[in-house]
Amino acid sequence: MIDFGYSLTSSSRISLDNINQKKLKKITAVEPDFLKCMACGSCAASCSAGNFTKVNLRMVILLLNRGMEKEAIALIEGCMLCGKCTLVCPRGINTRNLIINILKIYKEV
Amino acid sequence: MPATLFKTFKDIIADCLIHVQIFKKNILLGYMHFSIAFGWFMLILVGHIEVMIYTPQRNGVLYYPVFFRYFVMETHETLRGSFFFFLMDLSLLLVLTGIGLAIYKRFHSRILGMRRTTKLRLGDKIALYSLWAIFPLRLLAESFTANISGGSFLTISINHLLNAFVTNPDHILPVWWGYSWALGLFLFALPFSRYMHIPTEILLIVLRNAGIKSSVSRDGYAESEIYSCSRCGICIDACPMTSKKRNIKFSSVYFIRLLRRRSTESLATADKCLMCNKCVDACPVGIDSTRLKLLKRQEMHVRSRTDYEYLQSIENKIDATDSVLYYAGCMTHLTPAIYKSLFKILKSANIKYTFLDIDGSICCGRPLFMSGDKESAKELINKNRELIRSSGCKTLILSCPICYKFFKEEYKLDGIDIVHHSVYINNLLTSGNIKLHKGIGSFVFHDPCELGRGSGIYNEPRELLSAIGIVKEASQEKNLSICCGGSLGSLTLSFSEREQIAKSSLNSLLTNNPDKLITACPLCLKSFSTYNTIPTRDIAQIVSENLI
Ligand code: SF4
Ligand code: SF4
Ligand code: SF4
Ligand code: SF4
Does ipTM come in above 0.85? Predict the structure, then answer.
């Protein structure tokens, strides 16, 4: 490709049709706290794994709500389940149970 | 081997006949168990001796000693007769008092030190009511025939009392039938009821003393644990989750019952548990129910969905050959005041230290391990071990009891001294390396689950605190300490449920109006600070504030 000194940014279009409603229902059933997140980012700021790699729970929740499962999984599979995010979350979300179930429901093995 | 055999024998006598463990909980409750078990045992034993002496030709006939008085005509006039009859009546009386207490306990459990007892199922009910009926009927039956077969103070007296009624032979048979039926019904219902613990507990003691451990939640050892649970319900009162009534169904006794019935619901119960081990500590049978829960989690949860590739890129660049190594862990990184205080203390004692995870920690792996994902936890353990080994340290100080327990048990760091900071600071004090200012403030010490029940450290923190001020008692402390509610052992407890637990724990801690609440765990510190009405401090903080 010829480098013209500028490029196109990748599309940031959100297609809600990509959401797998079945899985989304499943996750809200096992951990209703999923709906409580206000995307404050406290979890990501305090994250142990986030010191070394791109783990970001706030982002994961956002991505799942936008139907971007693959991207979401890539941001959570490095989680060490340490529980710091549970302690800092201002919404009192049981983040560990949420993470366990995200991996269970969304990550294909 | 003889030593193990002897210990096994001793344990069986102490736990199955005398019920020492239950006596320690509550004297009346202990007496209830002791009288029924020991009295019944004596009835069986003396019954057999009687048969051997009086009717040796019937020796070995199983039913003979049970209905001895029905078959044999004897006289209590002889010395032998009066001795054995007295013994039999005495044992019967012992059992009857126990049964009386048991009936009373069903309706007024508080008297026997229990706030709640377990709900009964059909099998339990049949067994329970027939058990209640056996001995009164036996008393009646033996009394009715006491003028023929002989008896002692109890049976003879009743015989005299009801003389006219009793001498009618038509009345004798029905009570003997009643007795026989009650006994038969009990033995029939036994395997389907909680009374299965009577035979199983003996097996459990033998297996335990032989050093056997279970690796799945339903193998032989686990099975013997499951069936040894008497559903006494002691673990219900012990459990911090039951401070709100709705969670009673998550206590260990119900978990074990679900396991026994192979119900799929057992997983949800296992996931709820804080793994605080309070129920295990209280269980008179010594059932390690948290281990069973962990095994359940390991069997049922999906594992190894994690990806820790990134750990490989972390360099082993820490060198601690000439200093002590400090590992804060995730929780202490959330409460940096703890390590800052600790470093201040180390500096004042002129101790060189190296901060292993200064740029953020790799989790010790215990939270992951407790969630049932042993394999993933292994990866974290391996990386951390590599970092620690390559640092060349001799001593490793930890602030978090969760890490401490895990490092001690799973890390296999032979040659490295692993110490919790509360113990380390106390050693500095006793060796004279630090001096503390003693004031008039009063403290209460909260024993973190993993430090107290988990690692057996109760005294060092208290010794240390008594050098600074007055240590007050909590209403439940040391091995009875109530979890702060923050435990990472639970996977599904909600925020509000945790809040309830924290508050009930605080209630117990603040009974004697201390000035400050001191703990030795960053997680407890965090959980309590939110709801506490008095200041909450880590032991390192309070020591550093009082350094001279
Ligand atoms: S539990 Fe996972 S996401 Fe939460 S802080 Fe720890 S490593 Fe980060
Ligand atoms: S801390 Fe809680 S509310 Fe904030 S982004 Fe994370 S999960 Fe959502
Ligand atoms: S687990 Fe132990 S304390 Fe709980 S009911 Fe069973 S025997 Fe009793
Ligand atoms: S370990 Fe603690 S929370 Fe779990 S059942 Fe036992 S007492 Fe209750």
Answer: yes
